[in-house]
Amino acid sequence: MRVETFKDKVFAYSKKKGFDDCELLLMKIKEFGVTVSRQNVENYTDADSFVVTFKGLKDGKSAFSSSEVIDEDAVKFLVDSAYENLLVTDTLEEDSIYDGSGEYSPSQRFEDQFASISVKEKIRMAKFLEEKALSCDKRIAMVIMSSYSHEAYQITIFNTKGVELSESTGLGVSFVYLVASDGNKPKKGWKAVFGSNPNEIDLNKVASEAAKEALSQLGAESLRSGRYRAILRNDVFADLFSAFMPVFSAESVQKGLSPLKGKINSKIASDKLTVLEDPLFDKTPIKRSFDNEGVPTKRKLFIDQGVLTTYFHSLKSAKKDKVQPTGNVFTFKCVPLNSIVKPGESSFPELMKKMDEGVVITGLDGLHSGVRTVSGEFSVSAVGYYVQGGEIVRPLEQITISGNFIDLLKSIEEVGNDSELVSGSAYFPSVLLGSIDVAGNLS
Q1: Dihedral sign, CA of 420, 423, 427, 430?
Q2: H-helix or E-strand containing 175?
Q3: Based on the domain organization, do 118 and 226 belong to the same domain?
Q4: Is residue 426 part of a domain?
Q5: Which of the residues 75, 319, 352, 420 has an alpha carbon 20 to 30 A from that of 193?
């Protein structure tokens, strides 16, 4: 069945069923991925998927349903299922269907250059990544896995308010996970790169940086517990910040699940920290002109020189707070699509000089279990280096960093200029902290 025909049938049956308004979100996904270990293909994915989500609104209350097909049966299934869900819902929160107001950026069109590369060539690139990593140094004992993958998304929205939107986006990812050994305790290294086209996926960089990371950790020891000045490397700062991203969601705030309740226009971070969300940022591969509710996206600061300027609002949370939605519904959470920290002026070596003595944190483990977004507390395992006189003197392992996320943001003394795309949606520099609690196992 043609999409237009399906849409008309759903809208007509929805009205007959008793819904005031409704919406259809259609998502087509093409994904490819190959993972290699010891020159053998361990995992392989080459698949297309499709899902259509129906949202029905009646008396201000919303209900949802979904299907993987569009046909006559799906028309009735989607509407009937949503109506049954509506009858049993006990929420008191009002929702809405977006009316299409506001200014939209041009719809995004993703030119999927990854799809033009043969499967044979993609497998060869994953194998090359393993070979390249092993050739970096004789102490690279093994490559646990190397991978080459890409995804493309086609997003379409129709609603009974007259909104009709469609665009596409996508990205490619390559990573390697390896082990270095000097005959003593082996150390692991990891590196991933992201891009919107194959030219941005530098396999040599992936291999060499993962190898360098593992080699630099050989001979690592723990550290005496205490409070230390610290640098969070750009990828570590992004990982920790991303783990706490739900605290900026208005729904979390409204439910009492965020420490930022009542903090709009208040100081929550150092003057040095400015963070913005830019859904069309040129250095991130995923770009969107509208979110999954049909709300136009826009560039906005959410921390401006340490001041919290906004929460991220869905239609429902915006209605409750009597504000405008922010265009940030992309998954089940209302969070930034792309987060960018405004860089400072200091290079990474200059940050170490300014720190003089302390720790550089280069990796975290246990973020899922060690982060408590409700309170802002965290306690996670870490690795890195000990610095004296502004120079790295030895690698560190078996340490734990802990504290409160808001206190950490307030303790930022300098922001580096070493911004990098450290995930598919985060462009972050390193930061120098005044202090952080470090627990080791040395007396």
Answers
A1: negative
A2: strand 164-180
A3: no
A4: yes
A5: 352
Answer yes or no: do 58 and 165 share one domain. Answer: yes
Q: How far apart are CA 160 and CA 24, in angstroms?
A: 9
Closest CA to 106 of 280, 276, 278: 280
Residue at 95: amino acid letter: D
Nearest Cα residue to 229 out of 443, 59, 387, 392: 387
* Same domain flag for 433 and 349: yes
Question: Helix, strand or coil for residue 12?
Answer: helix
Mean of all residue pLDDT scores within the chain: 96
- What is the full DSSP assignment across 425-437? SEEE--EEEEEEE
Looking at the chain, how many residues does it have? 443
- E strand residue ranges, 272-341: 275-277, 300-304, 307-308, 339-341
Instruction: Give the CA dihedral 373, 374, 376, 379, nearest 10 degrees.
Output: -60
pLDDT digits (tens, 9 = 90+) for 280-338: 999 999 999 999 999 999 999 999 999 999 999 999 999 999 999 999 999 877 989 99
Read off the tokens for 234. Answer: 């750009």
**222 and 384 in contact (C-beta within 8 Å)?**
no
Q: What are residue 124's phi and psi, to 5 degrees?
A: -60, -40
Asked if 289 contacts 281 with a C-beta cutoff of 8 angstroms, the reply is no
Domain extent, residue 406, equals 220-241+344-439
What is the separation of C-alpha 293 from the centre of its chain, rounded to a whole number of angstroms? 19
Q: Is the pLDDT of residue 222 over 80?
A: yes
- Name 55's bridge partners: 23, 64
Q: What is the gyration radius of the CA atoms in the chain, in angstroms?
A: 24
Query: Nearest Cα to 29, choosing from 62, 6, 52, 58?
Result: 52
Is residue 140 a part of any domain in this protein? yes
Locate 182 and state its tokens.
């000097």
At 200, give phi and psi (nearest 5°).
-90, -5
Sheet holding 140-159, edge to edge: 61-67, 40-58, 21-37, 140-159, 164-180, 187-195
